[in-house]
Each structure stands twice: as structure tokens, then as C-alpha cells.
């Protein structure tokens, strides 16, 4: 499988599998839609269920989105995901 390179807001380069880039983008779109519709962020379980992945995989997607500067969140607190003000970072 080919690897893709993502450039994070922190200035570091990240590599990831091509397939997982699509899932991360899908996760980001879900977050934008969910927060827009409800006014609060989904839980990790809700993200995992929507993406049809495990909670640990959902957490890794969130970490990658955060590293790319697309979201902000407070670790170990539920429903604290915020969409970051971005230009064209990351995925």
C-alpha cells in the first residue's frame, strides 16, 4: 500500500497509508457535520460507530487530525473536540 505524506500545523511531516487518509478526511467531515447539527462534539464511541472502526482507531484518527491542526481537543475529557480555524493543512 502506498504511503501519503501529511504536513502538520506544528511544521512536522507525517506519513500515513493512503486508505487511512480517506478515513481521516471522512472522520473530519463527520465531526464538522455532527458539531454543526448538534452544537457539541461526538464521543469517541460515536465516532467509532460512524466510521465502523474500533475506539482505538478512532482515537488515532483524532490524534492525526489534531497533529495536522484541523481539530483541537482536551485529552481525557469527553465532547471537547473543536474544529480549528485552518487554511490548507494536513489531510
Can you describe what's shown?
By secondary structure, the protein is of the alpha+beta class. It has one domain: Winged helix-like DNA-binding domain superfamily/Winged helix DNA-binding domain (Arc Repressor Mutant, subunit A). Helices cover 46% and strands 15% of the residues. The chain has three helices and four strands; from the N terminus they run E-E-H-H-H-E-E. It has helices spanning 18-38, 44-51, 55-67, and strands spanning 3-7, 13-17, 71-72, 82-83. It has a two-stranded antiparallel sheet. Strands 3-4 form a two-stranded antiparallel ribbon. A hairpin with a 5-residue loop joins strand 1 (3-7) and strand 2 (13-17). Helix 1 (18-38) packs across helix 3 and helix 2 (44-51) crosses helix 3 (55-67). The chain is globular and about 25 Å long. 20% of the residues are buried. This is MarR family transcriptional regulator. InterPro entries: ArsR-like_HTH, LexA_DNA-bd_dom, WH-like_DNA-bd_sf, WH_DNA-bd_sf. Residues 27-80 form the LexA repressor DNA-binding domain. GO terms for molecular function: serine-type endopeptidase activity.
Amino acid at each position: 500500500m502506498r504511503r501519503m505524506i501529511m504536513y502538520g500545523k506544528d511544521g512536522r511531516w507525517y506519513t500515513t497509508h493512503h486508505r487511512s487518509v480517506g478515513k481521516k478526511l471522512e472522520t473530519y467531515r463527520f465531526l464538522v457535520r455532527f458539531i454543526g447539527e448538534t452544537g457539541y462534539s461526538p464521543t469517541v464511541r460515536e465516532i467509532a460507530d460512524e466510521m465502523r472502526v474500533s475506539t482505538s482507531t478512532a482515537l488515532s484518527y483524532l490524534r492525526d487530525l489534531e497533529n495536522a491542526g484541523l481539530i483541537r481537543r482536551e485529552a481525557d475529557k469527553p465532547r471537547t473536540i473543536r474544529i480549528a480555524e485552518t487554511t490548507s493543512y494536513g489531510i
